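In practice, a research group might receive sequence data for several interacting partners and want a quick structural hypothesis before committing to experiments. The following worked case mirrors that situation: the sequences arrive first, and a predicted assembly follows.
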Amino acid sequence: MSTLTQNDIEIATRAADHFTRLYYTTYDSPTRVDDLPNFYRPNSALTWNGKPFEGTDGVRELLIGIPSTKHEVQSFDCHPIPGSQPPNLLVTVSGIVTHGKGPSANPANTPRHAIDGHPRVFSQTFMLAPDPNAPPTKSGEVAKYYITADAFRFVG
Amino acid sequence: MTEKVVDLWKTWVTRRWNAEARFLNLERMGQDDWLKKHRLNVPTSDPSSKEAQVILKIASRLRPEIETISLAHNGFTSGRIMQYLAHYLPKLKNLSLEGNNLGAWREIDYISGKRGRLEELRELILKGNPLRELEYKNNRAQTYKSEVSRRFPSLEILDGEPVARVGFDAPSTSTSTPAHPRTMLSTFAWNMEPSFIAGVDGSLVSNFFMRFFPTFDNARRDLLDVYAPNATFSFSANTAIPPRARILGIHSSKEYPHQRNLAWGPWLEGGNGGSRNLGRVNGLQKVSQSLHLGHEEIIKAIAALPLTQHDVAGSPEKFSVDAFPVRQGEQTNLLITVHGQFIEKPAEGIRSFDRSFVLAIAPDGSRAKQRGWDVIILSDQLVIRGYSLHDAWTPGPMRVQAGDLLPSPGLQQALAALPMPQRALMQDVILRTRLNFQFAEDCLKNNEWDVDRAVANFEQVQGNLPSDAFLPQDAFLP
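A structural hypothesis for the assembly, expressed as tokens:
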């Protein structure tokens, strides 16, 4: 079994930082249905709150069915997974997400203690893998990664 | 600063601007004869000096949008002079700081820290600054490169050399324009679903958890065999207060008297290396120390975490599990995510957690197999966060805004016959108007299947609609 080098850990850390930023910016944009599927491939497996979807078409279908979003990442972590070179990356994200227009768009007679409209806590786990069919497009790129698995849930 | 002086700066910036290259040359400002002639003060890092801010503000209005700035050879000793750079030019692609006198990472943090970060920086030049040259002299070039690239995840070229990194097929946020305008739904087309387990026998997953969590609670050292010899583990604390739990007043509620005894310290500092929230962790050393490699290191780390009590057997509804196979090279592993809660000892307060495992079937003859584990853990990432109720994953339809109608199971069943995306669009219009299928469909068809237009159209004509245009009350949840 291969072991991880300091370099693997550094690249993984930076990749996770870059990835989470790009991913949620794209997710929250008005063009998400066109753009977010680019992070996936036809064989990607994902679940959204326990409902399974498959591949880029599945992502598109999922996104059509949810209101606009605003994600705020509060913590994230990433491991290179030993076993292949370059290694797969396991990324977990914890944060909050507001759907639609948020609490200010609740009806005027909404009780003060109503939680609807307020941000939900979400948890999302990604497995990122190098795509052998997508050659690096820029110098310095060790590989082009895509989301091979994605498990998402509202958790608060 | 007077308007006249600002105008002089505008003239000067224009002189230094190359629109074709989208390049603003702010090199050697101290030697600029034009500035001397007009008696303009060269920007300094003195807090009272407003020149840097004025120049950047003018720069932010240049068209086409600025891509490159050179601040080379200005003798800067402090990064404070750049404190407004990320604010005024957040999309800056290339920056040269060559030949200045920057000596510490905190100077760079003015453009990479919490107060502002150049999120899209592609190329950076720091040659000729003590910060770089001393590291090179001491054979610490790799540390230097790591420290820079850690600060700018988007960086591709540093001091003229490519930066090793991972790429993604992501749209460039600045160039992407909508292929066609889309209206987004105001409601969820999808329900919250129960635990999803695929590609593996459900009992394998439940057997694993029924043994893993009690062992984690009572005898962490006994987990040595279930972690693979080259497994990875880390934990991170999300210390933000969950918005819905805050509204419900859980932290101060009499029902949860121990919440106030909880403190983040044992998680932030504990576990042999501390919390690994990569959004917060500073410094490469901490990033490495908080990632535990190999089963022996993992056991040491988890043994040094606060004690826990997960009631997986008594209250399964307080846990949610999704599990499905993932391919890794030739091998197929299992990705399992579990969400739930535990009591933290000795505070006795409740924490929520998310835990992601990559599992493999335990090989025959392995120590794990000999000890009765069906699987081994390749990777384990734990997130600890403020307590939220497990209602979050109660199956069924979900509201967006307060007062939203929710579909009854009968209505959802009737809609299920429709293909996507029609089903989602129909449900959205029905929930917003109460129209029956026929009227909802006509309304959408007349408005090119744009839900917002359909609802606006409905609002104009609703007074003239017959009462049988609407669904009965029992089509919606009470």
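Before designing any experiment, note the following. The radius of gyration of chain B is 30 Å. Chain B touches chain A through 100 residues (CB under 8 Å).
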